[in-house]
Design a protein that fits this description.
mainly alpha; three-stranded antiparallel sheet; about 5% strand
Amino acid sequence: MADNFKRQSIIAPYIDGLLLEKRANGYSYDSEELILNRFDMYCRKHGLEKLEITKEFLGEWMEQKENEGAFNQAKRISCVRQLLMYMATYGICVYIPHNFCHLKKALPHIFDPMELAAFFHEIDSYQPRQNRTAEVRLAGEYRLIFRLFCCCGLRNSEAAGIAAENVNLETGVLTILTAKGEKDRLVYLSDDLKNSCQNYYAWLCNLLGFTPRWFFPGMNPDKPIPNTTLDSVFNRFWAKTRYARCNNKPTIHDFRFTFVVNRMNRWAEDGLDLQVMMPYLSRYLGHKSTNETFYYYYLVSDAYRTVAKKDSIACDVIPEVKHYE
């Protein structure tokens, strides 16, 4: 949508200016651009004819939409708030929303093996209704990228935005650049996942007829697949499983939580010292400290009890920690 969308409202030049500023400062701002495009349409639909945005004008935009979670509502409002603050620097009279985010921290969903099997069954059996090259290609991309989330604990943006040159298919090493906290790191793949990546990339290049810049190109192969697309794809396939009506609806990020819990449980069951192993896991995940990694584990009481049974110093190993990502 961002590729072909033509902003036509009276505030379009300010959206352009905000995007240029954010990207000059190193932010991709791709998902935010999609939201700003929606706000551009909102302004046209509601007949904004002069550069003044009031609280009343934003009323419908501030409302939570049907089937919209609190997080997405807050992100949508926060994105437009950035635009309004930008416009205010030009002396434009705007109402800047505040105190709109009252989110309760959701507990992570730890996937059990049956849930994972059901989800990947839906991913692997998916066939596009229209046999168009781009849709066939994206179906193949989904099968691998969700396995990277599951097996490597990658963040959504890290997998979606990885350049092909940063995937070493010979050694099976991913180079993650400027991730959260401006941290770079190496992520090592298992042999079977490395083989899957090799087969996938050979298939991808053959299908496209050229070597793509991105390991997971989007509908437009010159750009990476958007994070928001993957969120939507995850929700669509999860909804097809028998577990879709669970009380704690999962997100892509819960693959990362599950990866951490499963790894720590396995180490605990094998009798390994978590104090020794945690710095390695923290570095693998791109965390600033082991406390960030412990936070993932600390939220999951069942997992914590597993460690407590296996590790006599569990109370010292898993301390009280602050909130992180």
